[in-house]
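Fold these two proteins, one after the other.
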Amino acid sequence: MLYAHAASWPVGFARLVERVREVAPTHQTAAALLRDFNRPDGVAKRDAERVAAGAREDAAAYQPAQQIEQFAVTGPRAIARARQLGPAVVDYFGHAMLRLEEAASIGILEATVHLLDLRRALDLPTGGARHRLGPHRCAARADDAAG
């Protein structure tokens, strides 16, 4: 389920790079947006159950190969598109207007946190670059842990 949740980011980023708007950002940094998201009445608290349910549905609906494809194909295409755009403001999924590079930093943060979550769930070390897993091994280990 955690891998299915994390695998949604490349798809989300691909959508995000198509949501360019000619407006000023509502938040100057990703940190400011995340602070708002995590307020007691923020979207992270309000939508936690919906996000968890979506991850469960994705885990049941998508095979590991499809989830891996999100990182191997969809993600790189979205990154290439973001590089073509250069500096831009994007509609962050209806929640805010954010500079694209700030939005991308949220994906990096999410990936890091969820990799640590996955490693803890699999009882693997969480410190240092020497413990890296590629997406193929993560998916395989996630299947082992789930099944």
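Now the second one:
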Amino acid sequence: MSYLTRLAAALLATLAIGAAGAQAQDKQAAAKQATEQLVTNAHRALTSNNNAALRSAIEGAFDFGVWERFLSEPRADRFSPEQRDRFRQLLPGYLAYLYHEQFDRGLATPPEIGAVKPARKDVLVSAVFKRENGKNLPVDWRLRDGPKGPQIIDVMVGGTSFLLLKRDEFTAMIDKGGVDALLSYMQQHSL
């Protein structure tokens, strides 16, 4: 390979790496913006006790297809088509309820967005919920690019994945009382 050919190849590789880096930065910036929008709207809803606004903030930020598949996956064969439809209907309100229960305690200020970093094909956005009692709550939002832009596919509170935790709970509920028991629970715990 001639010197000019090697130089051209190196230059093209550098440009490709630069372009990939710029795309990754754009992806991270979009994920950060989506998370900021969620926590701002959700904080406003929580401090004004507006459950409809909280649900709307959740509906705009979460990828319910991912949440539905992951939460029901271990027992997906036990859902009738009607139960699957009901599960889909209840999921946004249930996730809004979880958000309310987890993050509506002693919030003096909106959460602070921190580090943004790649996580395989996703982006992790870190935040800190500052509590009035001085005990800060670290939260990581996992976002994945989709047709609607970056959407939340998991929330890790203190290092614990909501998605994994709730999947285990849902599986246990279905095993104990069937899909209707799970749907009843979600209905009772929905905003």
